[in-house]
Amino acid sequence: MMSLGRVFIGGALLLLLGNAHAQDGKQIFTQGGSQPGAMPCVACHGPDGLGLPAAGFPRLAGLPAEYVRKQLVDFSSAARSNPVMEPLAKALTEAEIAAVSQAVAALPFPAPATAHRSEMPGNAMQKLALQGAWERQIPACVSCHGPAGAGVGDAFPPLAGQPAAYLSAQLAAWQNGTRHNDPNDLMGHIAKSLTAEEVQGVAHYFASLSPEVKP
Ligand code: HEC
Ligand code: HEC
Fold first, then answer.
1. What is the CATH number of the domain that holds 69?
2. Phi and psi of 28, rounded to 5°?
3. Residue 13 C-alpha to ligand 2 middle, in angstroms?
4. Atom 17 of ligand 2 has which residue's CA nearest to it?
5. Relative to the CA of 167, which of 11, 77, 194, 201 has its CA 20 to 30 Å away?
6. Pocket test for ligand 1, best of 29, 63, 74, 85 (most atoms within 8 A of CB)
7. Do 43 and 51 meet the contact criterion of CB atoms below 8 Å apart?
8. Considering its fold, how many domains does the chain have in total?
């Protein structure tokens, strides 16, 4: 009887602790979630959430909270499949996802600098980014992702300041179908219309539009 009581009290305590933990997004960011497998985000996305460009780990700092929340839900449903983030997102509760999304959105990220012509990987990539390629039904990237790729609202994430290796990996993921989480297959259609050279070039172009993260 004694031990049953203890188990019950222990369980109630764990629930309470779990709740307190879930509400503290900053703590999930630095120390991980309440369930096994919910690793701290800082381990890969860096102490300031600026990502790890060499490894192709994206920045989270300053991304819209609703976009981050949607990605974590998409990882856990495998609409966006990734061997690292899929199990991790599944290990977070709904409340933890909401809290950590708010926390990373609140991390500061400097506004992207305007492009320096000398850093551009060629006018063809700038043209693709700024004007699209209408003969192939590819709209300008900036028409959805905003001027200088700074992002627009909750649905269109920033491209500027993300590592080039990350951006090109996402375009490749849409091309091979491992990422199929966007409304109306907008990005799927665009990515599949790009050549391998354009994927690399446009990724470097947007990655270079930031003083913080070099491609
Ligand atoms: C072990 C390394 C690792 C850890 C720990 C980790 N991530 Fe990630 N994360 C990645 C990688 C790698 C990607 C890129 C996945 C891809 O290519 O689709 C990523 C991508 C993301 C994205 C997509 C960003 C975008 O621009 O679409 C979000 C959101 C994210 N992680 C959130 C988190 C959160 C929140 C945590 C902590 C609870 C976390 N990650 C912990 C490695 C990690
Ligand atoms: C019609 C609107 C639209 C246009 C045009 C567009 N995108 Fe996107 N893009 C989106 C949406 C919406 C998402 C987010 C999908 C989701 O919810 O995961 C996205 C996401 C991305 C991502 C993933 C970012 C991340 O943080 O994971 C990359 C990379 C990307 N777009 C590159 C491009 C490039 C390069 C172009 C131009 C060749 C382009 N996009 C044009 C709508 C658009």
1. 1.10.760.10
2. -65, -40
3. 43
4. 182
5. 77
6. 85
7. no
8. 2
Per-residue pLDDT of the chain (215 residues; tens, 9 = 90+): 445 555 555 555 555 554 544 459 999 999 999 999 999 999 999 999 999 999 999 999 999 999 999 999 999 999 999 999 999 999 999 999 999 999 999 999 876 555 444 455 568 999 999 999 999 999 999 999 998 899 999 999 999 989 999 999 999 999 999 999 998 999 999 999 999 999 999 999 999 886 443 33
Q: Which residue has the tokens 């907008």?
A: 186
CA pair distance 65, 44, nearest whole angstrom: 19
Say whether both 197 and 131 belong to one domain: yes
Dist. CA 6 → ligand 2 center (Å):
52
Taken in order 52, 54, 57, 59, is the CA torsion positive or negative?
Answer: positive
For residue 152, list its beta bridge partners: 156
Whether residues 178 and 94 fall in one domain:
no
Do 154 and 196 lie in one domain? The reply is yes
Best residue among 28, 74, 84 to mutate for probing ligand 1's pocket (most ligand atoms within 8 Å of CB) is 84
Q: Quick one: 150 and 197 in the same domain?
A: yes
How many other C-beta atoms lie within 10 A of the C-beta of residue 77?
13
Listed residues 85, 105, 125: the one ending a domain: 105
Q: Which ligand lies nearest the alpha carbon of 22?
A: 1
